[in-house]
Amino acid sequence: MGDHPNFFIQMREVPKCGTNAADIVFVLDASSSEGTDNFHRQLDFVRDFSYQFKIGHQNVQISVVVFSSMVYEAFPLNKYTNDTSLLAAISRVAYIGGTTNTDLALSYVRLRSFLPSNGGRKNVTDIIIVITDGQSTYPLRTKVEADLLKNRTDTKVITIGIGSAVDRTELEVIASDHSHAFEVPNFNALQQIKSELTFAACQTCSFVQKADIVFLLDASSSEGDTNFQTQLDFVSRVSNDFIIGKDQVQIGLITFATYPRNEFYMNTYTTKSTLLSQIQRVGYMHGLTYTDKGLEFVRSNSFIPIHGDRADAQNYLILLTDGASANPSNTLAAAQHLKQQGIRIIAIGIGNAINKDELYGIASDSNHVFTVTGFTALQQIREDIKKAACAATEMRTTETAMLTGQSHL
C-alpha cells in the first residue's frame, strides 16, 4: 500500500452484494443551510441507493435518522421488510431546519439505532452513512462521538460532504478511515458517487471465517512508553473489529526488543472482553530492535497446534515497528521461513527511521506493506489492514472450495 494518498474518486464495478446481510443507517443533515429542495435530493439519493439491495430481516435492513438542532428517527431498521414500503417511507421523511448538531446524531445512532428492539442483529456489519452540507456546530463533541461510534464492533462509518462549506478534516474524523470520506460539489452530484459508495458499503469482512492472527510489536527503546501504548490501542481497535472465539478469530501477541517475549498465545483468550483487557496490560520492554528474533519466535512458538494454530484457518502475522532491524539479513531470512509455511505477513512501518526495503522484504507482497508518519496516524490504516487480511482470507476460502468441489458462485 505504501504511503496513503489524498482522497480521490475512482469509479469501480459495483460488487454484487445486494443479498448480503447488513444493517445500514442513513444519518441525514436537515439543517437550515440545506433547504427543502436539496433535502429532497438527499432523499432521492437514499432511495436510489437502497433500491440496489434485497430488503428483509435476513438480508439488508435500512433506517433513516435526521438531525439539525435536534435528532429524530424517521424509522428503525426493522420497520420495513420489502422494497416497496421502504422506498415509500424514505420519500415521506420530513425536513426540519436548524443548526448542524452532528454530535447529537452520532450519539443517537450509537445508543439507539442498533438495539435489538430496533432491529440490530449480532454478527452483521453495521454501516452508518452520514450526509451533510457543512461543518458541525460543535466539532470537538462530534469527534468524541465519532470515536465512540467507531469503537463499536464490526461498524463502518461512511461520510459524504456536499458543497464548499464542508470540512474535509471533519469528514475524515467521522469516517472509519480516509477512504470512506466522500465529497461532491453539490446535491445534484450525489448520484455520481453511488457506485463508489456501494463499493465501500459492500466491501465488508468481519471474519466470520476462521483466522489465526499474531501481532508482533516493536518494544525497543526508540519507541517510548507513550508510543508503545498507542501501538496497543491500535491492536485493541483492530481486534475489536473481529468476532473472537475458538471457531472464529484467534489473536496472539508477542513483543520484542533485544529479545522476544510472548504476551499471550492465540488460544489463551477466547472472548473479546478478556482479550481486549489483556492487550491493555502488556508491558513495555526497552532494548535493541532484533526483529529477526521476534520473527523466529513466532515461527517456533505461535503457529503450532498446542498454542492454537488450526489447519483450516489462514495464518496472519502483523508486524509493527518504528525502525530498521539490528540484523537485516537474519530478519529477511526469518521472514522467508514464515512465508514458506503459508503465513501471510503484514508489515507496518512507523515514522521516518524505518527501512522501506526491509519492510517489503518482510511482507508477503507489496500490498501488505503500510507506512505511517507517526504513531498517532496508525488509526488511519485500521480499515486498510482489515481489507488486506480479508482479501487473503477470501482467496483461501475460494481455493478450498475449488479443491473440495464446492462453490458459492
What descriptors fit this protein?
Rossmann fold; elongated; six-stranded mixed sheet; disordered N terminus; ECM_Assembly_Org; 12 strands; 2 domains; 409 residues; 12 helices; signal; VWFA domain-containing protein; VWF_A; disordered C terminus; alpha/beta
Task: Quote the beta fraction.
Answer: 15-25%
CATH C-level category of the largest domain: Alpha Beta
Task: Could you tell me the CATH topology label of the largest domain.
Answer: Rossmann fold
Q: Total number of helical segments? A: 12
- The 3D shape can be described as elongated
Low-pLDDT parts are 1-16, 396-409
Could you give me the name of the CATH homologous superfamily of the largest domain?
A: von Willebrand factor, type A domain
Number of domains: 2
Protein name: VWFA domain-containing protein
Pfam families: VWA (PF00092)
Keywords: Glycoprotein, Repeat, Secreted, Signal
Subcellular location: Secreted
